[in-house]
Specification:
structural constituent of ribosome, about 170 residues, S16 Ribosomal Protein, Chain: A, rod-shaped, 2 domains, alpha+beta, five-stranded mixed β-sheet, Ribosomal_bS16, Ribosomal_bS16_dom_sf
Amino acid sequence: MAIALRLSRGGAKKRPYYRIVAADVRSPRDGKYLEQIGMYNPLLAKDDDGRVNLNEDRVRYWLGVGAKPSDRVARFLDKAGILERAPRNNPNKAKPGEKATERAEEKAEKATAAEEAKKAAEEEAKEAAKAAAEAPKEEAAPEAPAEEAAPEAAAEEAPAAEATEDKAEG
C-alpha cells in the first residue's frame, strides 16, 4: 500500500483549514486517512507559530515507512528541518536569452563610450578655460585685432538694419 503525506481540507466555505494526514494514495482528498500528523491554517500570518503544527515523531515514522509527501507538505517539512527539499524551479529559466544579453552588452558599451567622451569633453573645456584665463595676462598689448573685428561687426549689422526697414515699409 502506497502512503502519502498530504493535506485534507476542512473548514467552511472561504475559510479553509487543513489537516496534515498520512493516507493511502487511492483514498479521496477529504476521505479516509490512516493518521492525522499535523494541522495547517492558511488564514494565519506566515510568521505565526500556529500556522503549521506537526507531530515530528509521527512524521519521521511515516517517512521511514516510505510515505511520500505532497509538494506543500514537503515545503512544511523542509521549513521544520525534518526533510530536505530540492528546489523545483529552473534557475536558468529566468536568465535572458543570447540576443537580449548581446543587446545589453552593446548598450553598456555605448554608455561607457558616451561617458568617456563626456569626460574627455569636460577635460578639454577645463583646459581651454585655463588657457583662456592665462592668455589675457600674457597678451595685454595686442589690441589692434580687436579694433579690426569691430568694423567688420558694424558692417554686418548695417545690412541687417536695412532689411528690417524694408519689411517695415512693405
